[in-house]
Protein: Bulb-type lectin domain-containing protein
Amino acid sequence: MGISSHANLFFVLLMLCSYVLDVGIATESITSSQSIKDLETLSSKDGNFTFGFFTPPNSSDRYVGIWWKPQSTVVWVANRNQSLNDSSGVVTFSEDGNLVVLNGQNHVIWSTSVPNISTNTSAQLSDGGKLELTETTTGNSLWDSFQQPSNTLLPQMKVSSNRTGRGVGLTSWKSPSDPSVGSFSVGAVERGKIVEVFIWNETRPYWRSGPWSGGIFTGVDLMASAYLNSFTVVDGEVIYNPESVSEFGIFVLNSQGRVEQKYWDDTKQELEVSWTNKISDCDVYGVCGSFAICNSHGSAICSCLKGFEPNNKEEWDAQNWTSGCFRSTSLQCERAKDQNTTIDTNEDQFLELQKVKIPDFSEWSSAEPETCRSQCLKNCSCVAYSHDDGIGCMFWNDNLLDIQQLSNRGLYLYVRVDPSELEHAMKRDKKGFLYFKNDEPLEQRDNKVFEELSRVKLQELLLFDFEKLATATDNFHQSNKLGQGGFGPVYMLLCRDFSSAGTGFSPHGSPLYATLLTLPTLQLSGFYTTELGNEEMELLEERKTLPDRDLLQNRDYSQTQTTDITFISWK
Structure:
């Protein structure tokens, strides 16, 4: 009994020591006449990576793999689907020159499986953590571990599509204690000129990055961070290529389908998670179904696009959104087709969605923005389009699936709707708040301002909360003028029935907006809008010299000339 207890204790200590991975005989390379036994290791020249035997936490099984030595972080596993149950395993070369893992019965449980190679081979571990099988005489690479990754993306690794018939991607562990292949995988998908990264749960899409635009993945909201900006895409292959190789940064696909970006914190002396792909339920692929948008900041995260209604109202109210939405008002082009009549296709309009992860299954063309729009408009099957300088023209002829509202990134999506849907939007009662500051004299302005209006985007304006402004200024009291003592005071204009002066939700296209920009020393600085029960819009105007009242009241602010402008001073 005593001997048995000591033997068991020795085996436990052996397992612990081998997981710490700091013991054993280390070498930089092995040749066809050499082997690596349990507790022996192969190390990179800089000592940061080690290849050998290890045991995962809460397990007694033995595996062969590569780990990053400073924190014993396993980054690659050879025999992940066929473990060893004791310490009798060995890494060696087979008669045909392949690197193999043998169990105690000399059965091959893993092999590099390269056909028709020289028997004169060797293996070495690079400073980047890549195990490489080479032909000793020529030095030619025959196989490397980056071609068969596990769950970790190291610098210089890539994920690729199956376009060439040989896709490369990550696969999750089954659990933190079981490195066998789990349910989740990461890979690249290339459709025409559009490249995206996907996570799949078995065969079902679980998450996607949005299209690559030449610098970022447009559906990843925090793509501006240092490591996330370290990707390049070449011929459908997504390559992790960080600028600084001195800082250890990796991407790990965990057993729950979450990709985590980790970096080494020198101060804490540990790996820190700096980013993850799944922050909210909106990050799950298609959670809202078709023709719906997901916004994690909403009380209910899913809502149908304007002009669409839930397919199943009962499920929708129960917050089961997967059935999606359907078009509630048929398109002009559809009605013309049904009636076999000719109709101006321009009667259909496009609803603009800003800063979104655009839907899946887009088609691509090289068309410029205006051509992209007109091509979609001429094709009644085209339900939406988007354009990005780094991608080109994208359009959709089927369901719009997996649209997500983003905060910092994203693209503009234009959804085809019946004109009445935009008319309803224009008639919604609004209260607006425009914030102006002093600028150049009127004589320095010219007709260019009108040409530039169509290129002005709403996100260029500062957004203000009306209630917060009212509180900060003591309800716009005379003693609390905004900008007083700086670039001049702020004044307000009251515009009743603003709905006739604007188009859609943006003031930029309205004649009122264009006219205001031509007023002396006037420049738009911000806009605020919120729903009210009456028809009016308040404009904040900041200037050193007030405009003449006649100048304001005599301007033609709308095509219908129904807008009533009244000047309102501070109290």
